[in-house]
Amino acid sequence: MPATTSSSSPARIRRIGLFGGSFDPVHVGHRQLAECALAQLGLDELRWVVAGQPWQKERARELAPAADRAAMVALAIADEPRFRLERCELDRSGPSYTIDTVDQLQARPDAAGAQWFLLLGQDQYANLATWHRWPELLQRVELAVAARDGQPPRTSAALAAVPHRLSVLAMPPVAVSSTALRTALQGGASARSLVPDRLAAAVAQYVERRGLYHSTPARPG
Ligand code: ATP
């Protein structure tokens, strides 16, 4: 009987990115950051984690319903098979803490042995030491940070005191924010500038059909 040979090359480790946000609404800056991360980190998949109850933002204003924010993200990522909409924060109650999401996703069987990256713009990286259980988060994921508003990735003093893995993403500046878009939409602007051209029409139609932002009431007080 002939000897059998088996391949001894180890299985490639899957590289999974997490990209969290309120996405209220999703926009071209989000898409650009995600595309840069796919290419520069060699990700096998990138999960767009729509915050159910963004603990940093909910007190300041009323968000669009989570189901609408998720539906807009689904439309904005539909053309890229490595992008996935992650709904786990929508299904949890309470504030959407990223460390809870990491706990949940890393415990799934399909995640065994994967390498995890957390994508952030500089504004969020600067705030990271205010996040729930942040030192633990730093042990569980590698950070991938992009410049924003002309601010390059810069490590805060609190973060510098704790070892962490960091990749800096090269990204052409995209001067857009959800806040600016909401303001423009409330002022009657077209929703077509939200995401790249090929996807804009679908997201814009969704915004218009659902009457989002034009009529968003400000939260009193
Ligand atoms: P808002 O204006 O409501 O605060 P936002 O535009 O910052 O919203 P989020 O959904 O809070 O959007 O952002 C999700 C992530 O995307 C964050 O890490 C944020 O830093 C990053 N991000 C958003 N817009 C840009 C941009 N134009 N350039 C680089 N990073 C961005």
UniProtKB/TrEMBL annotation:
Protein task: Catalyzes the reversible adenylation of nicotinate mononucleotide (NaMN) to nicotinic acid adenine dinucleotide (NaAD).
Record's signal peptide: none
Pfam families noted in UniProt: CTP_transf_like
EC class name: transferase
Domain annotation Cytidyltransferase-like: ranges: 18-183
Molecular function, one GO term: nucleotidyltransferase activity
PANTHER family (alphabetical): NICOTINATE-NUCLEOTIDE ADENYLYLTRANSFERASE-RELATED (PTHR39321), PHOSPHOPANTETHEINE ADENYLYLTRANSFERASE (PTHR39321:SF3)
Pathway it works in: Cofactor biosynthesis; NAD(+) biosynthesis; deamido-NAD(+) from nicotinate D-ribonucleotide: step 1/1
Family the UniProt entry places it in: Belongs to the NadD family.
Source organism superkingdom: Bacteria
Gene3D superfamilies for this protein: HUPs
UniProt-recorded name of the protein: Probable nicotinate-nucleotide adenylyltransferase
Keywords: ATP-binding, NAD, Nucleotide-binding, Nucleotidyltransferase, Pyridine nucleotide biosynthesis, Transferase
EC number: 2.7.7.18
Catalytic activity, reaction form: nicotinate beta-D-ribonucleotide + ATP + H(+) = deamido-NAD(+) + diphosphate
InterPro entries documented for this protein: Cyt_trans-like (IPR004821), NadD/NMNAT (IPR005248), Rossmann-like_a/b/a_fold (IPR014729)
